[in-house]
Amino acid sequence: MTIPIANPRPDTEIERVLAIVAHPDDLDFGGAGTVATWTRAGIEVTYCIVTDGQAGGFEPDRDRAEMPAVRRAEQTTAAAHVGVRDLRFLGYVDGRLEPSYELVRDIVQVIRQVRPHRLLGQSPERNWSRLATSHPDHLATAEATARAFFPAAGNPFAFPELAEEAWTVDELWMMEHPEKNHYVDITETFDAKLAALLSHESQHADPAQIETMIREWLTTNAQAAALPTGRLAEPFTIIRL
Description:
Layout: E1 16-21, H1 26-30, H2 32-40, E2 44-51, H3 67-81, E3 86-92, H4 101-114, E4 118-121, H5 136-152, E5 171-174, E6 182-185, H6 190-198, H7 208-224, E7 233-240
Parallel strand pairs: 1-2, 1-4, 2-3, 4-5
Antiparallel strand pairs: 5-7, 6-7
Helix pairs in contact: 3-6, 4-5
EC number: 3.5.1.-
Organism: Kribbella deserti
Pfam families: PIG-L
């Protein structure tokens, strides 16, 4: 399947964005620099984190019962670095996600509550060249998000048990998709992205290498986007209804 040419609405037409991901830190790796450009432009951004990341971390002796609270706190700190203060945690278990009726319903409910003009999420397509981005929880969350995006959130007859009114979002931005069709220059917000990433202290056994790794990746993206030397970019795949 060929991905259509990106045709995003101008940011000046966007008032609210809802970002939906599987784990704490997914957004900070994939899109925090772009989120920071949006919040600095006055756009309200809400995070919806599906699991509490219980299976993450690198310390074998750590009490795993502590991880949900730790990771929620880290994500809250990270979000503040890029101007996000509205976070919704759905509390699903890390490693057990499926694109179930219940998960689609819960995402639809958040969409109808936030009433965003743009969704930011993950890709339901497995990327065999960068398999780490295709964690099964990412794929499940992305599939549920795609189902919520169309047709469920905007269908008043879907999930009649929900009290919230139907809301149609006409724009979905996906991170991690194998076929990219849009890049955002985040050179000016890179420091905020890095600060957000480093807030996830429980996940980084060697935090000193994070900046080098991320800079290299963002530089490669900027080159693919034909941006001037020295610029940094995050890639996306944009779908419009």
